[in-house]
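Worked example

This section walks through a single chain of length 301. The input is the sequence exactly as stored; nothing has been trimmed or padded.
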Amino acid sequence: MILETINLSKSFGLRKAVDSLNLGIPDGSVYGFLGPNGSGKSTTIRMMTALISPDDGEVLIQGNSVQKLGNKTLSEVGALIEKADFHKHLSGETNLKMLARMVGTEMSRVQTVLDRTGLGTRGKDKVKTYSQGMKQRLGIAQALLSNPKLLILDEPTNGLDPQGKKEVRDLVRELSTEGITIFISSHLLDEVQKICSHVAMISLGKLITSGKMEDLLRDSDLLMTEVHVDQVEISVKLLSALEWVHRCDVVSGVLRVGIEKEKASELVQYLVQNNIKISAIIPRTSLEDLYLSKFGKKSQI
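Given that input, the structure is written out below as tokens.
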């Protein structure tokens, strides 16, 4: 594991923000970190990057304790904590050179990270001319200055338009192919599912579930099934009346039905008994479905 949290805990007054949290981030993974607002995600990241100290427990990076060794453990860690912030009247290149000088990075690295984040031709332009997506990519360029093995991104697509989100998503994919481990806290479930190999969900500072994305979706208690039938409206009325059907929606003329996994055969049998012809039944459980099964529809992420 390139990063571990061991019984990590942090309180603010009487509120327990993080409660005995144990995470293991495999080397080379893209790891999504999810939870409702106020679940402790940002507090966890601040403890990972030594911005605040835990009340109990510790963070290990490549086996070394952040709490015991401090910044020595962060030499191969790059981080973008929430919104990237730069001197807008200066160019992207100048901003990065100032930061490189502060941390002792060679100046040649500046052009390297600008090129790597797709800003090579815009480095000499003032930051105030950048789009939000470009500013966020500049923030990732800043995090890459130290040539890190681990990249920690807190809400990297927050506030971006669809094009900006795609730019950041594509960049994360590219960086992961180079062997950089990436830890992402995000509100965007569909984005996380597209790019992450592993995921953890927390609530009220406690770990709810974690593991490989494909394993969690396959083993989810809630099975979301795409059902193609000849009588959509009648099928919705029939299924919505059943206690063991948790969700029944229609998307583009196709039923999306949420049931417990062991009820799949019963679902088919029930529709057939009611003279509904089924042309296809396809498992379609998404990360959003898994999230809702853990936290409920009212939780905000």
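What to look for: The chain has two domains: 3-217, 221-284.
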